[in-house]
């Protein structure tokens, strides 16, 4: 098991060309949100932009047409025809360099059906799956066969159990995570107090940063946005996963120093992503 140190992550970060433009840093597509859960989509989108993506398109229910552009004016916003939930997915996905799905998505019959139809026909490029996208997989495991290789799954322990079944020990959990990563050729970011990244080649990375204050609503949505941003910027899926986890945790540690673990909320993590970058780049 390889610990994720700042020294190791520092060697992976891409530096920007002074003559570059936004088109050089990818175009991410985020799909998520539903009635009562638009905040999750906003958090993921804000984190994606803050992590350095060139362009972001967020696809959300029509009911968010007023609040979403106000909450995150930097994003391009597309709206589903339904005001409360996602009932179809964007079809012209070839123009996006990375896709993230699930934060606040919901698991209604309409949404699950739209997800099923889309996953069976979408282009074969890696996708970041989180939250309710994972829950839809757990209800219809046959859909896992359609997941593009090198996609990234970001479950917490309970979400992962719903997909692979329960485990009674850390050893059994590790075996199931490795088996899942190898079987579907995907990366599993298993979120816990010591988040681990399971790679399809059998490598396991362990995060050594983070704090208990990050056990708060929306923290996982922020991580999804960070990883999506990195994947869109042409980091490899492995790099996007490991750098994303460390950026997220360092930002959480910096936030806790300012507001305490007890008072920390997900937005505080987003506000400290820039400082986390500076920490990683400091020699």
Properties at a glance:
10 strands; globular; alpha/beta; single chain; 283 residues; UDP-N-acetylmuramoyl-L-alanine:D-glutamate ligase; 10-stranded mixed sheet; 41% helix
Note down, in words, how this protein is organized.
By secondary structure, this protein is α/β, with parallel strands linked by helices. It has a domain at about 25-190 and about 220-235: 3-Layer(aba) Sandwich (UDP-N-acetylmuramoyl-L-alanine:D-glutamate ligase). The chain has 11 helices and 10 strands. It has helices spanning about 5-10, 40-50, 65-70, 110-120, 130-140, 155-165, 170-185, 220-230, 235-260, 265-270, 275-280; strands at about 1-5, 25-30, 55-60, 75-80, 100, 125-130, 150-155, 185-190, 195-200, 205. It has a 10-stranded mixed sheet. The longest helix has 23 residues, at about 235-260.
Task: Summarize the structure in short.
The protein is α/β, with parallel strands linked by helices and 283 residues long. Helix content is 41%, strand content 13%.
By CATH's scheme, which homologous superfamily of the domain at 24-191 and 218-235 applies? Ribokinase
Strands in their spatial order, largest beta sheet: 1-10-9-8-7-6-5-2-3-4
The sequence of SSEs as H and E is: EHEHEHEEHEHEHHEEEHHHH
- Structural class by helix and strand composition: alpha/beta
Residue-averaged pLDDT: 97
N→C terminal distance: 25 Å
What is the C-level CATH assignment of the domain at 24-191 and 218-235? Alpha Beta
Low-confidence stretches: none
CATH topology of the domain at 24-191 and 218-235: UDP-N-acetylmuramoyl-L-alanine:D-glutamate ligase
**Number of alpha- plus pi-helical segments:** 11
| Tally of strands | 10
């Amino acid at each position: 098991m390889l610990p994720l140190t700042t020294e190791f992550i520092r060697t992976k970060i891409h530096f920007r060309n002074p003559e570059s433009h936004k088109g050089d840093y990818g175009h991410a597509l985020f799909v998520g949100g539903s009635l009562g859960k638009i905040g999750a989509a906003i958090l993921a989108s804000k984190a994606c932009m803050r992590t350095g993506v060139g362009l972001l398109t967020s696809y959300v229910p029509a009911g968010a047409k007023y609040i979403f552009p106000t909450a995150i004016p930097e994003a391009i916003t597309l709206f589903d025809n339904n005001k409360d939930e996602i009932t179809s997915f964007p079809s012209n996905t070839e123009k996006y360099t990375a896709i993230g799905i699930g934060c606040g998505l919901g698991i209604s019959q309409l949404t699950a059906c739209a997800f099923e139809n889309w996953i069976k026909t979408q282009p074969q490029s890696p996708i970041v799956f989180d939250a309710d996208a994972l829950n839809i997989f757990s209800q219809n495991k046959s859909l896992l066969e359609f997941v593009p290789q090198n996609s990234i799954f970001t479950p917490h322990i309970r979400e992962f159990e719903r997909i692979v079944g329960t485990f009674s020990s850390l050893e059994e959990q590790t075996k199931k995570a490795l088996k899942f990563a190898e079987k579907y050729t995907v990366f599993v970011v298993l979120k816990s107090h010591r988040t681990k990244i399971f790679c399809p080649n059998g490598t396991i990375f362990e995060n050594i940063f983070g704090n208990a204050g990050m056990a708060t609503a929306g923290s996982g949505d922020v991580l999804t946005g960070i990883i999506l941003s990195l994947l869109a910027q042409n980091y490899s899926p492995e790099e996007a996963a490991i750098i994303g986890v460390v950026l997220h945790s360092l930002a959480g540690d910096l936030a806790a120093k300012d507001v305490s673990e007890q008072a920390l909320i997900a937005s505080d993590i987003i506000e400290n992503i820039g400082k986390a970058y500076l920490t990683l780049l400091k020699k």
